[in-house]
Amino acid sequence: MNGQVFGVGMKLAARVESVSPSMTLIIDAKAKAMKAEGIDVCSFSAGEPDFNTPKHIVEAAKAALEQGKTRYGPAAGEPRLREAIAQKLQRDNGLCYGADNILVTNGGKQSIFNLMLAMIEPGDEVIIPAPFWVSYPEMVKLAEGTPVILPTTVENQFKVSPEQIRQAITPKTKLLVFNTPSNPTGMVYTPDEVRAIAQVAVESDLWILSDEIYEKILYDGAQHLSIGAASPEAYERSVVCSGFAKTYAMTGWRVGFLAGPVPLVKAATKIQGHSTSNVCTFAQYGAIAAYENSQDCVQEMLAAFAERRRYMLDALNAMPGLECPKPDGAFYMFPSIAKTGRSSLDFCSELLDQHQVATVPGAAFGADDCIRLSYATDLDTIKRGMERLEKFLHGIL
Ligand code: PLP
Which of 58, 97, 144, 199 is buried most deeply by CB count within 10 Å? Predict the structure, then answer.
């Protein structure tokens, strides 16, 4: 039975009207519904590793359940996890944080949302290089700020230049969103490029939201530099938003974190204390196990991603009408479909309906001449999907 459909006379808040639903979740839901009907869909839409969470992490959460870690905990997170995250940031990223600088959040997503709510005032401008992760501009709007989108092109590897940022700064600019390795492009800014961008933020007194959720998913010797480690001044004005989902195949666990100056962490904790409270207590024990044990599981997943990446990149670049730069990180390809003359939404809809291949329109990421394919899926699906995509392109070109 369906529930009530019309809320008589209900007027929703303007802040909701201005926000679009997540297109990645919509396409993924459509592909899953087709699969549920028994249709053989090759899905490249979800930004989610296809591996199971490593066993030692699952066992740690099970043990926590057995030990009764099933109650409310501190809103900012279990003290041992906050400490483990601080140590990881010192060890791996050269960022000098203590447990007080850490807030454990419901995934990386909530860390970004909390940051926006804690920092953005109505009318504040937030610079977001495009292509961008779908939720950044919507979160800025929910915080009643103004997203300022900086376009990039396939020719410059989808990377924004320091000069572009400089030119976009106005007296209202508060924050720069910086995501490397990038979703959706897979591009990784080199350490020199990171330092140059950090310099602009420092000169112009901007805060930096550094989304480092893909930091461990790197190929061909690419290096990740946390922008906060670029200089002591950059450290003072940067906030790391990250999580366990992508590195440890823990998407459903909903554990992430925010790391930054204590006043910001306290403000974000206050917001979280009145919205979601603590992250699921026993899930946090899984996250502790992820950081406190061997990282071999990460290397194993990385080896599989690397093989899939090679296959998909070669296949895409051999197809008519596509142009795909080599991504050095994350698990996405972001080819240009400009030569097909279609909008990204039309391209993806036709491809899904006619050949049962699910991809995400670049329009969702601020780049309507591209599509996103995730290769966090098995090689057999990738091979079959590439054959179907090629057939589709031959049909339309
Ligand atoms: N940041 C980026 C760039 C992402 O791609 C994602 C997830 O797709 C997130 C943040 C949020 O991840 P989580 O699942 O930890 O909330």
Answer: 97
Q: Is the pLDDT of residue 285 over 90?
A: yes
Q: Whose CA is nearest to atom 5 of ligand 1?
A: 183
pTM: 0.96
- CATH dotted code for 3-52+296-396: 3.90.1150.10
CATH topology of domain 70-292: Aspartate Aminotransferase; domain 2 (3.40.640)
Q: 17 CA to middle of ligand 1, Å?
A: 23
Q: Ligand 1 centroid to 321 CA: how many Å?
A: 30
Answer yes or no: are the C-beta atoms of 116 and 140 closer than 8 Å. Answer: yes
Rg of the chain (C-alpha set):
21
CA 215/CA 328 separation, integer angstroms: 11
Containing 345, the helix (H) or strand (E) segment is helix 344-355
Confidence at residue 178, expressed as pLDDT on a 0 to 100 scale: 98
Structure tokens at 102: 């850490």
Q: Is the pLDDT of residue 144 over 70?
A: yes
Q: Specify the ligand 1 atom closest to the Cα of 47.
A: 8
- Distance (angstroms) between ligand 1 centre and the Cα of 213 equals 7
Ligand 1 centre and the CA of 209: distance in Å? 13
Residue 141: closest CA among 128, 160, 159: 128
| Averaged pLDDT for residues 345-362 | 94
User: According to the model, what pLDDT value does residue 11 have?
Assistant: 86
Across-strand partners of 361?
371
Per the prediction, the chain carries an average pLDDT of 95
CATH 3.90.1150.10 domain extents, the chain: 3-52+296-396
Q: How far is the CA of 309 from the centre of ligand 1 (A)?
A: 20
Domain with CATH 3.40.640.10 in the chain: 70-292
Question: What per-residue confidence (pLDDT) applies to 16?
Answer: 85
Decide: 243 in ligand 1 pocket, CB within 6 A: yes
- Which atom of ligand 1 is the closest one to the Cα of 110? 16
pLDDT at 373: 98
